[in-house]
Amino acid sequence: MLAILDYKAGNQTSVRRAFDFLGIPCSITADPETLRQASGVIFPGVGAAGQAMNQLTSTGLDHVLREVVESKKPLLGICVGCQILLDYSEENDTKALGIVPGACAMFNRGLTEEDGQPIRVPHMGWNKVSLQTPCELFEGVDADSEFYFVHSYYPVPTSEFVIGTTFYGMDFCSVHGRSGLWAMQFHPEKSGRPGLKLLSNFAKFCGEVSNAQ
Amino acid sequence: MLSKRIIPCLDVRDGRLTKGVKFLDNVDIGDPVETAKAYYEQGADEIVFYDITASSEGRGIMLKVVEKVASQIFIPFSVGGGISTVDDMRAVLLAGAEKVSVNSAAVKNPDIISQGAAAFGAQCVVVGMDVLKVGVSEQIPSGYEIVIHGGRKKMGLDAIEWAKTVEALGAGEICVNSIDADGTKDGYELTLTRLISEAVTIPVIASGGAGSPQHMVDAVTEGKASAALIASIVHYGEYSITQLKEYMHGKGVKTRMVW
Known about the structure:
Chain A has helices at residues 12-22, 32-37, 49-59, 61-70, 80-83, 192-205, and strands spanning 2-5, 26-29, 40-43, 75-78, 88-89, 94-95, 102-106, 123-128, 130-131, 146-151, 153-157, 162-167, 171-178, 181-184. Chain A is α/β, with parallel strands linked by helices. Chain A has a single domain, classed as Rossmann fold. The two termini of chain A are 18 Å apart. Chain B is of the alpha/beta class. Chain B has one domain (5-250): Alpha-Beta Barrel (TIM Barrel). The longest helix of chain B has 17 residues, at 56-72. In chain B, helix 2 links the parallel strand 3 (47-51) and strand 4 (77-80). Chain A binds chain B through residues 10, 13-14, 17-18, 20-21, 46-48, 109, 113-115, 117-118, 120-127, 142, 144-146, 148-151, 167-168, 187, 189-196, and chain B through 1-5, 40, 45, 70-72, 74-76, 94, 96, 98, 120-123, 172-173, 201-203, 224, 226-227, 254, 256-259.
């Protein structure tokens, strides 16, 4: 069973619906014991980094998350979950979890897109990911696939943790981590088939088997 | 680089599509869930549901539709029409929509934009604006005025000023619907679209007037929009979304081609 961390951060239901569709058992939970028993943990999130960190620390779930990572249980961070795995976020001047070294910065509105137009913030819509290093989660995913992004801040992990990059006025890191500890700035649960493939690859890595036909 | 989005819009009343969608051979053409699924399969980048239900009973039915869509379609979708309170927004988002669209309620009570953005994040709040071309005047310096009630009521509000206001209040996106172009199939109101796109830094969706694939190219190039909203051009089987995307891609517009 996969566990989706419930810290009132918005999109946990969308993530669960995607796993339901894939026929992969999962539960939305804030219970430390259920999280410890899970084959893998999904750490979702929408909204602001400051609020998300407050929710985590006030419930003590920040400690549970660290424990999950220390025990080498697979973890997948999504969007704000991806951002606050880092040390710090410029958004609300937030001290974050510090599980992956790095920080989160805001897009500079002075940047321009490839067509010469100024970028708009939030970065909202579909964009590609260029893998900088092979990643198990992207097995069977077409390299031209696009994923749904919606964010104004982007992760800047130290270079050894950069897995994939995306161009939006500049190259930024859209997938970071290492084997078994992954984080994605985009929403795989809203990225059509390629996104569902990433989620099913994560479930497979965790040893889960789909019961869908 | 970010792809330009193609967004089909479905009008729903009491849980059914109001205009029959004619391109589908093998599904119930009045069912918004089946139709949304078909558009998802064709590569729609997002879907908009516009609920024209008047009764509260009908609203409950719409929430059921939203739940069904959310369990079968894994792209973002928004719901608009009759959203006038933060509680209305919450109900739609909890049912599974990514975004809510507010239109006349925002004109009457702009605070709903900031309240919605504070409660659910700016990315959730789309402000739809219906715009009529009027003469340039002191009150309407751009010559484009905000209207409500399907264009019947002028609000004495300049469209460009209103766009800047909603951005400042925390809207995540603006959908600009030209009342003049709507239903004509003669193309989007490109001047209006460009003026709004240049006045704000949040994404702008062009709406009203799409009759050919070239119109959509124009909206995202000349009009500088981030996305094009479409309706009858796909509902009546003239084009599939896949065909529209292939056309745009062929014209050098960055379009999502793998899904």
